[in-house]
Design goal:
Layout: E1 2-9, H1 26-39, E2 56-57, E3 66-75, H2 82-86, E4 93-101, E5 113-119, H3 126-134, E6 138-141, E7 156-165, E8 168-173, H4 180-194, H5 200-207, E9 222-228
Parallel strand pairs: 3-9
Antiparallel strand pairs: 1-3, 1-4, 2-3, 5-8, 5-9, 6-7, 7-8
């Protein structure tokens, strides 16, 4: 049976969502908890590979990034409930919903849009910031906002909406490059600091050059709000 669950987590104490060797991750904690239901043993004991649950997340969140509604699927022939899982999970990771789904559902591949929110720790000029964000709308090559350290060749994304409201920036798109949103925020902060025109954002996009964008903002302000299917 395919199960789909929604996770809420505070990412500050984790090395990202994706499981990694010798690191504390959201996926690692979730799979260790789910292992209890398949093996009947404590979640921190080695699992029988034949019984291990392998989870698939809608996408990875970086170290320090939080989520209000991360979507995960996995296959398990048995009954599960939010309460049963949450009793075993750390308090900063909680399942808010769980449901059975059709076997064709895929948390990552079935996703249409993702909504991220960034909470600024300072006020910036609303009118100029919104005008700058408007340049992100539509489909673009976002090479300028892609972390230089990633080998993934993908660079084109579609941004459906990008809105600033006070200290909150909400961006909805079909996909995002590694550290892309945090670099967009860093570019907004650079525009504010240097008192540049909003059109600087367009120039950065068109440059397709990471050195033209601002610094990557802190991960602690970023939250995955919703995955839309």
């Amino acid at each position: 049976m395919r199960w789909v669950l929604t996770l809420k987590y505070d990412g500050k104490n984790y090395s990202g969502s994706q499981i990694q060797p010798n690191a504390k991750t959201i996926q690692g904690e979730l799979e260790r908890t789910l292992r209890t239901f398949t093996t009947g043993a404590k979640g921190d004991l080695p699992a029988n590979p034949a019984n291990s649950i392998k989870t698939v997340f809608s996408g990875r969140t970086d170290a320090g990034v939080s989520a209000m509604a991360q979507v995960v699927h996995f296959d398990f022939d048995g009954e599960l409930s939010c309460d049963a899982i949450n009793e075993l999970l750390p308090k900063d990771i909680q399942v808010t919903q769980i449901r059975p789904a059709d076997g064709s559902f895929h948390a990552q591949k079935s996703a249409k849009l993702k909504h991220y929110r960034y909470e600024l720790d300072q006020e910036i000029g609303h009118q100029r910031a919104q005008a700058a964000l408007n340049h992100l709308l539509g489909e673009h090559d976002f090479t300028s906002f892609k972390c230089a350290g990633t080998a993934n060749p993908s660079r084109v994304c579609f941004i459906k909406s990008a809105v600033i409201n006070g200290r909150t920036i909400d961006i909805v798109g079909d996909r995002f490059l590694y550290k892309m949103i945090r670099t967009i925020v860093g570019t907004l902060l650079f525009i504010e600091k240097e008192d540049l025109e909003a059109g600087h954002m367009k120039a950065v996009i068109e440059a397709k050059d990471r050195t033209k964008a601002g610094k990557t903002a802190s991960p602690y302000g970023l939250t995955l709000v919703e995955v839309i299917y």
